[in-house]
Amino acid sequence: MNVTSLLDLTGIFVFALSGAVMGVRKRLDVVGMAVLASMTALGGGILRDLILNVRPAAFESLGYVLVPLLATVIVFFWHPQVERSMPAVLVFDAAGLGLFCAVGTEKALTFGLSPLHAVLLGVTTAVGGGILRDVLAGQIPSLLYDRQLYAVPALLGSAVMASLWRLGHAGWQATLAAAVLAFTLRMFAMRYSWRAPLARGVPDD
Amino acid sequence: MNVTSLLDLTGIFVFALSGAVMGVRKRLDVVGMAVLASMTALGGGILRDLILNVRPAAFESLGYVLVPLLATVIVFFWHPQVERSMPAVLVFDAAGLGLFCAVGTEKALTFGLSPLHAVLLGVTTAVGGGILRDVLAGQIPSLLYDRQLYAVPALLGSAVMASLWRLGHAGWQATLAAAVLAFTLRMFAMRYSWRAPLARGVPDD
Amino acid sequence: MNVTSLLDLTGIFVFALSGAVMGVRKRLDVVGMAVLASMTALGGGILRDLILNVRPAAFESLGYVLVPLLATVIVFFWHPQVERSMPAVLVFDAAGLGLFCAVGTEKALTFGLSPLHAVLLGVTTAVGGGILRDVLAGQIPSLLYDRQLYAVPALLGSAVMASLWRLGHAGWQATLAAAVLAFTLRMFAMRYSWRAPLARGVPDD
């Protein structure tokens, strides 16, 4: 297993944790927790691969199936501890966001999408799982109203990935650079509470 | 750019307006508005292309990405004006409905679906984006309970498109005829408040 | 028409009934009832085929389109009678669950998925339609919180199907055995109120 795979599975693991924790909060049973964990972790990549018209990676890799189940088991038994370490989970979630947008953009470019569309698909990869998690849990996706910058760091990371690719800098160094940029922006956005604007004239609460 | 492309982008624009306006009403931030605008405008076509097993047109065309963003910007700055002109937007929405059902049916026929299935996919193209918009905005799709005739005009337009195709009348004239028929029926349905029935015995409000 | 097709259409019919009945309960109009009936009956198979990267069977078969519409008509006119016979519908629903998980797993194996992934896709086939039904009807999928064993019987049926396949026992006998096992488990789970656990420490109501 190489470094990229390890980072990838780490991203899947923390996304799955966030899904399973949402499951506990909504008082779902263990089946619901497992479904929510898996969809959060794998949903973005599945959407990406459906759009690229290839078989989803989640249905060809062993780790992609087992890691969300592992996260479910951990949250099932130790959810108070996981909840208490949510600040740490948010750091990993930011890492997952960075990695998923970079990897998703790269895969889209490999399959011949234009840079613009590759960026769009990279962002979809990064945020798609969280959107599915929230829809299944019966709430408006937090991405849409939360005002925390979440999609914007992914957008910038994807754009940098696509730019490096266009300049001939493919390879894991480019992927890592784009992922680190998105991660850093996301951490700053959380630290300094950068907020997305509401439409002009809509009163701020 | 030919007439069909122009009509197509017009349809995408008004569908995107309706998504962005819904975003303002739900107090979503600008990211949520852009997501809702894009999904409303592109969701039906993406579903159609996934089912046809081809790469979605939205990921190969520049305009399909930029037009929903343009609609988002307009609604972001001038949503009171857009809301005030909603009657006009509804006319354009009816035009988009007509065009999308005709174009979707035609594409499905081109890819070898039977007329019946092509009609089904044409209707999916026309109404799929609105369903995704409502699900993401956290409400039951208005198509399902609204009782306004919305799917039915699309169904008839798609059926006419498929019939003309079977009779050997392909080409933009057939597409336009089917689109105009669906548009006209939708306008009549709005004008005269034609309503879909509830199940027998369910009391009318 | 062979026995498998007949069982398949029966499964589609009862799943469609459950969708249409949900439509009446939510006071949807006839269009909403038809959409809900079709998505409940066909959604799982459509998801399966999208992931397998083949054209969904629902868009190539006549019966798959007509049977949900037939169920809609029946519920439209006679929903009090259908509601009264819901215990019988639940038996058929269990039969549909069993059949869909077995057939879905088999199709996934035929397309070269590993046994683990084929099981996952078999369960998706069996429960996907119900999840879509609930999301469209504006509620958290009952699968996620209901605590009734529904996914677990499908999981075991799929696992048996994949095991028999690995042992060289393909063919309708294997499919039927797996389907009967899942059906039986589901019936026992209903009869004896077997329940999925909540996360440790979450108080039971």
Automatic annotation (TrEMBL), chains A, B, C:
One of its GO terms (cellular component) is plasma membrane. Keywords: Cell membrane, Membrane, Transmembrane, Transmembrane helix. The chain crosses the membrane at residues 6-24, 31-51, 57-78, 85-105, 117-136, 148-165, 171-189. InterPro entries: Gly_transporter. It holds the Pfam family Gly_transporter. It is found in: Cell membrane. It is a multi-pass membrane protein. Residues 6-79, 91-165 form the Glycine transporter domain. Its main location: membrane. Belongs to the UPF0126 family. This is UPF0126 membrane protein.
